Hints:
The structure is a single chain. The protein is mainly β. It has a single domain, classed as Methylamine Dehydrogenase, Chain H, CATH 2.130.10.10. It has two helices and 24 strands. The strands form six sheets. It has a four-stranded antiparallel beta sheet with strand order 1-24-23-22, with no helix packed on it. A four-stranded antiparallel beta sheet has the order 2-3-4-5, with helices on one face. A four-stranded antiparallel beta sheet has the order 6-7-8-9, with no helix packed on it. Strand 4 and strand 5 form a beta hairpin. The termini are far apart. The N terminus is likely disordered.
Amino acid sequence: MNRSTLGSLILAITTGVTLAGCGQNANSQMDSPTIRAAQAKPTQIIPTPANTLFGAAPEPNGTMWIVAGPPASHGIFQLDLSQKKVVGSVSVSNHANTIAESSTGIVALGLSTSHTGAIEFLNGSSGALLNTVPVSGPVVSLAAGDDGITFYALNGNSTAKSIAIINAQTDKVETSVPAPNDAVSAVPTPNEDSLYVLEPNGIVSQIQTAGGHISTQFPVGHSGRALTIGPNGHTLYVLKGQGSVRNVAVVNLATESVTKVLPAPANTQNIVLSPNGQILYDVVGAPSIGNVQSFSVR
Length: 298
């Protein structure tokens, strides 16, 4: 993607996204009738390029990387959350579809073709390519571990999926953990001894990183799309929904139960938390829409 294309993308930014489908009628289709969506509004809406695909968790310095762009022209864009605007951009492979950033400033970019996948490691300040690590299949989701050097790449297709555990210092896949064939998202626990893995039917499995066995499973409501976990490891946030209807189930991991449901904008693609776990960022994208909306979860 050249500079003129990047400029056109930024000029095409729109914030025309509402909380469509987040009221009680929408949630009655997806959740227990005894748990209704909270009537929350975003505390801020930050415009991003149209076709925003995925966002990394924000860093303590208040910046966030996202991957965006039409199929023929992808880029990564750095947001300044306090200034509420894009402050930098870098052209990347058109196969890029997921992104994550470690606490040490390493950006990992997930690549996905119809049959292959890889992780590109980038400099978190400049976006410059550092190295590329192939994985066994197309990358579906990507998450960074709390140790600052480990990344978890859910990859594969409808007949076989696994989670590659990658060391960003050695640029090697250290091991691979089996995942359900229809898994859509995976995140590690803070101590990285296990992963929570989401299926579209709303079943969450906790899978041990050593040995790959499932230690527990529980439902969170159907139409699962993405996961993020609180910094203390006590709370799981699950993005769910179909079409224009989206919401976020808040799960108490001690009881493995949904305690409340938060609204989410239509076209929310993934969710991430602030470093202190008090703000949930909904990453929104569609062919003519892009923004990041923040919600207080205190």
